[in-house]
Amino acid sequence: MSTSPGTGGAHRSDPPEEPTLKRVMGPWLLLLFIVGDILGTGIYALTGQVANDVGGVVWLPFLVAFTVALITAFSYLELVTKYPQAAGAALYTHKAFGIQFLTFMVTFAVMCSGITSAATASRAFAANFAEAFEIDLQAGIGITLLGIAFMLIVAAVNFRGVGESVKINVVLTCIELSGLLIIIFIGMWALGIGEGDFSRAMTFDTGDRSALGGVIAATTLAFYAMVGFEDSVNMAEEAKDPSRIFPKVLLTGLLFTGLIYVLVSVTAIALVPADELGEGDTPLLKVVQAGAPGFPLGIFAFITMFAVANTALINMLMASRLLYGMSRQHVLPPQLGRVHRSRRTPYIAIGFTTFLALGLITFVGEVPQLGGTTALLLLCVFTIVNVAVLVLRKDPVEHKHFRAPTALPVVGAVTCGFLATPFTDRNPDQYAIAGVLLAIGVVLWGVNHLVNTKLGVKGEIHPEFLTDDDPSTHHGPSN
Length: 479
Description:
Residues 1-22 and 468-476 have low confidence and may be disordered. Helix 5 (100-132) packs antiparallel against helix 14 (367-391) and helix 12 packs across helix 13 (347-363). The chain is built from 16 helices and no strands. By secondary structure, the chain is mostly helical. The protein is globular.
């Protein structure tokens, strides 16, 4: 492992070998992990905002986002079966291009996507909390203050130390999935008794945009609901025979969640008109109210709160550990790598990432812009990963691995790259948010590089050693 944080010794370019992780995950456990990682804040909070862009065909942007994610998943499948290590996009970028600054920027972008995702979840949590307890906080600063309070609680839990196991993830997945299945069953019931207007699911209302322009703009937001599948590569070292089981399990997980999202979207628009669905940050609560007035609304609100709270905690865990990992490898200031003596958690990194999240909640606040920024950051990362697949074709390995059809990484790079551009009519605020976050990383990297040069310390990123020794913290951003 690299030199411990805060020491003045030179960084070793080749960290010593560590024990390998125990391979405990079979196909079913891995499938539940993947499904649980994709499900989350996106569909619970952003369905209404997608409806604002396209009207009744709210399911279509989710379907397009699913298709783009599926194409990119083939690239991840080739890379994770070729390099079955718990490192993800940073490792693939490092192996393909060998440029330290690019590897750092990809790593920092993944970290920032975790912070923006957690900030999205905190806003959604606050809105659902207000609905569950019938507190009128929709207008004014109330939701912001509640979101800040929630994020501080997440920071406290993070500081205390959380050892998430895959078995706990199974329980969380079942709870998150139950909320979406409730929506689908309500839709089936409404269809059976002749209630709801399912014809609305085929109507476009894209405002000043063309139908295609509206779908593209909505897809840039809906894509947030599909992120999370890439996290599964971080479990590669704990899966049994990953080169064999990963392709089938990941594709099955994506197809399942894509189907769930389409069914939920169709049900939502059939029971609640697009203009009503797009008001506020609790769209699925409105669906329950409209389709099953007798259903205990508080129960569904708590399911939603639980789902988005889990998203926030996992993402803040990931963000703080990545920051800690970059610090201990001397590519960021060593102070960020300090560990609390009694809690054994990276308290400075936790404080710094929480500060950024609080800033986003306070000065941005809006769920669409925070969710859209998460998608923007990850679309940039996915573009690089799709290119890395093609570059790494010249790096053969001895074992058999999945190989994606060459056309798919090309299409994936083009589509992900396009969805990250202003040509999609993406809100400019999202570029500003992402730019400020990445600029913070560049400044930290630059200042630290100057200090390292004066001290004669060599800082290099080794992606496979970025996270700490607890495999339960090997998570990327979930939606």
